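Students often ask why we bother encoding 3D structure as a string. The short answer is that it lets us treat folding as translation between two languages. Here is a chain of 332 residues written in the first language.
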Amino acid sequence: MSSVRPPLAMTMGDPAGIGPELALKARARAAPGDPPFFVLAAPESIAAAARKLDVGTLIIETDLEGAASAFAKGLPVVPLENRASVEPGRPDPESAAATIESIKRAVAAVQNGVARALVTNPIAKSVLYASGFPFPGHTEFLGELAAKWGGPSFPVMMIWSEALAVVPVTIHIPLSEAPKALTFDLLLKTARIVDREMRARFGLAKPRLAFAGLNPHAGEGGAMGREEIDVIAPAIAALREEGIAAVGPLPADTMFHARAREGYDVALAMYHDQGLIPAKTLAFDEGVNVTLGLPFVRTSPDHGTAFDIAGKGIANPSSLIAAVRLADRLTR
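And here it is in the second language, the structure alphabet:
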């Protein structure tokens, strides 16, 4: 059996966003020891981005089998069947089919062993919604694809950096619905996956999980809400009985400064912005979106499509490069 490890599969993202530019820059800035990767993309979108850049990266159209060897010469691009827009900054629902195809085929490449991990470029959910996309976001779509392949269908989003790892327990729902969605069972299920993945993927012998409260001051003993008393604290107690190192609920406004972060490995936020605001403030250019609970590794930049700067050649590839390196680390 060959000892050569398969490359990483990278998706195109929204072709009108900065994804194609980031892929080109990530290849141009690849350092010795960085893993090879290929992009499943509409060739015209990558070519359009290359024309606006001066990165000196050769674009090599290839099939899946030739992608790893092609990386030594340039950016391997495995062509999609669907065409995509080549107008940076002008999102087009007609490109949605190519964006979705890129994700599906990248997942299939990992499932079939042709690639060892999935790295996704940013998508524009509003563009996909206009084409009938039924999922709230990337994370939920990947969970559905995993379920179709016989894998677990409960993905958990984590934003990771060397400064902070945070998991929002409720994700892509309106803030008004978060308290109703925040249940005892959801907290247990999420925390168990985080604990398991931090052990298996990140090599932590006993991950320390810190739970934020939902309300200001973690409810102030019930004066500002009872979710901490009725839901969060009982879930933490149950997790501790299982041997999981869980603490909280903690006031969210005091758990993200440097000294507080030394006391835990992963923060569990009760809603999306409660966790992602500190994560992106601390490490916007280095943060990585990691999906836990899937039968494969998936990483992604922690930012969006940035249509406002697409095609201007100024997009920062640091988060995508961090995503590539973390995917490599988690599959070694």
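Translate back mentally: The CA atoms of residues 6 and 114 lie 6 Å apart. Keep this in mind for the problem set.
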